[in-house]
Design goal:
Length: 67
């Protein structure tokens, strides 16, 4: 049981790191990748989607940390 909890926390922590690390004030490479993927029609849509994914990931991390 402890191994599964650790594994879940590790995966969520890794996801947070992978999403937050490329987002710097000077250059947001993840946002550029989202925009160039063709999934979104405008830059604003890709920015909104990335912000939503970022906040949800951080929320999941804290939820998993405290539960």
């Amino acid at each position: 049981m402890f191994y599964l909890i650790f594994q879940k926390r590790f995966l969520i922590g890794l996801l947070v790191i992978l999403i937050l690390t490329p987002q710097t004030p000077k250059e947001n490479t993840l946002l550029l990748n989202f925009n160039e993927s063709g999934l979104f029609s405008t830059y604003s849509e890709s920015k909104t989607a990335l912000q939503f994914i970022t906040y949800i990931t951080i929320f999941l991390y804290f939820l998993d940390l405290f539960l």
